[in-house]
Amino acid sequence: MNPRRLAFSAHDGLRLSALEWPGPAGRAPLLVLPGICRTALDAETVAARHAGRRRIVALDYAGHGESGRAARPQRYRPEQLIRDVLDAMAALHLHGAVVVGTSFGGLATMAVAAMRPASLTALVLNDIGPQIESLGRDKVVDFIGRDHAFGSFDEALAWFREHHPPMPLLDDAGWRGFALRTFRQEEDGHWHPRWDVRIGQQAVGAAAGAPPDLWPFFGGLRRLPLLLVWGEASTLLSAATVAEMRRRRPDMGVAALPGTGHAPTLEEAPAAAALDAFLEAVP
């Protein structure tokens, strides 16, 4: 099933975009919030298994994918992107949503749960938690802030496989799909990231400031069914943080991916199986 592209306006008039796979009205919609280095295309791996079972919507944040680029880079600050999520949920009628939040998408969802707790039904955190390791954060800033303008897709793919955190559970086809969701060929014939590289410093870099204490936000999720997908080699989410999350939420499901870095694509077999079972249990 092919998705359709949706367009709507944020609070400040910036054009935002999302992908939608239709589904039955009687089930909670699924909102996919990608990582800061990803776009709405991230949802393709989930939609391949769940399209038609429930409505699926995936958001392009400002400056990502098919959403508009901001005149001022300050528009990409975290609080602005989180407000975009709230705008999207209102504009696209995503009430009582199940959210799959990868990295920044998971952080945004914790904020939404604190501000509008009744808007969510269940939550999947993909390789993110209330404690963000500085080493992993620095690597994200470096990755998102560079445009290598690759001369060919094969060149982009080779670089991507060499420099991305380890993904041992992805085969060659998985890596190609991942790279195609990350880079696109533009009018100059070169392959560029599918985002505005100015996002880096504003959303996750020094300009974004120090991360707030997110443990109270995590505590606010206590009424929601919760699944954590964890890349055990992640430099952003440590084993100590996962252990504390488990202590505070012993009912939280955990799908641990050996040798996998930040952040799983959710097509890896252990992640897919855990996600499928989790979603099947949500009305």
Q: Would you mind describing this structure in some detail?
A:
Helix 1 (44-50) links the parallel strand 3 (30-33) and strand 4. The protein is of the alpha/beta class and 283 residues long. The model has no long low-confidence stretch (mean pLDDT 94). The strands form 2 sheets. An 8-stranded mixed β-sheet has the order 1-2-4-3-5-6-9-10, sandwiched between helices. The longest helix has 14 residues, at 78-91. It has a single domain (4-280), classed as Alpha/Beta hydrolase fold, catalytic domain (Rossmann fold). The protein is 35% helix and 18% strand. The chain has helices at 44-50, 78-91, 104-115, 134-144, 153-163, 172-182, 199-204, 215-219, 239-248, 269-280; strands spanning 4-9, 15-21, 30-33, 56-60, 97-102, 120-126, 183-185, 191-193, 226-231, 253-257. It starts with a strand and ends with a helix. The chain is built from 10 helices and 10 strands. Keywords: Hydrolase. One of its GO terms (molecular function) is hydrolase activity. It comes from Neoroseomonas eburnea. InterPro entries: AB_hydrolase_1 (IPR000073), AB_hydrolase_fold (IPR029058), Carboxylesterase_BioH (IPR050228). This is Alpha/beta hydrolase.
